[in-house]
Structures are given as C-alpha cells and as structure tokens.
C-alpha cells in the first residue's frame, strides 16, 4: 500500500508507517498543491491513501470516481506526539480502507470530550 502524507502532517509520522510505502507531499514537491489537484497527482502516482489532518476535505471532495482513499486524523493539534498516539487506530483503518472512502479517526481526547 502506498500512502501520501499531506503537508499538514509532521513528515516524521511516516516513521510509524514502516510496513507501508509512505511519502510526504514535501518529498514529492507538492507542498502548495490544493486538495483536488493533490488527489489527482496522488492517483496518477499510484498512491492508495492520502493521510491528512484536513477535516474539511470531506465536504470539499467527491471520491465516488476516485481510486484513492482518504484517512483524516482529527486531533486537538497536529503535533507528531499527538498523532503517534493514534497509530494503532491508523493501522486498523489502513487494513480495511477501500478506494473512494473517507475515514476519520478521532484522537482519544476528542472522543472522551464528546461523551
């Protein structure tokens, strides 16, 4: 599985995804590319999943004809330590996610506050 980490995530998060082929948008030179174009570039480069912290992407993108899936990390900040706490859930979703899906993972502190 090929994973593209969006520029809004710490690039070191890919160190927690070593069983996958992961690349950052910075490494690809796509830092300033907007979401729709980023999805197209990712598909053209055969990425399976876009990993992002952009919670608005759900309302901005229609994935019905896309070959890529989107995994959104929702947390109270975008720090590596915060997202690293979510790595177990990230792996669970990556094992099941399908092309054209958008899946959100909430950090435990967000889910506890909503109870």
Briefly say what this structure is:
The protein is of the alpha/beta class. It has helices at residues 25-28, 35-44, 57-60, 80-84, 87-96, 108-113, and strands spanning 2-5, 21-24, 49-52, 69-74, 102-106.
Question: Overview of this structure, please?
Answer:
- The chain is of the alpha/beta class.
- It has a single domain, classed as 3-Layer(aba) Sandwich (Rossmann fold).
- The chain contains 6 helices and 5 strands; from the N terminus they run ββααβαβααβα.
- Strands 2-1-3-4-5 form a 5-stranded parallel sheet.
Radius of gyration: 13 Å
Q: What characteristic shape results from the CA principal axes?
A: globular
For the biggest β-sheet, the strand order reads 2-1-3-4-5
The end-to-end distance, rounded to whole angstroms, is 34 Å
Q: Note the main sheet.
A: 5 strands, parallel
The CATH topology corresponds to: Rossmann fold
Number of strands: 5
Judging by the overall fold, what is the CATH architecture?
3-Layer(aba) Sandwich
Instruction: Quote the beta fraction.
Output: 15-25%
Primary descriptors:
115 residues; alpha/beta; Rossmann fold; 5-stranded parallel sheet; 20% strand
Topology overview:
Elements lengths: L1 E4 L15 E4 H4 L6 H10 L4 E4 L4 H4 L8 E6 L5 H5 L2 H10 L5 E5 L1 H6 L2
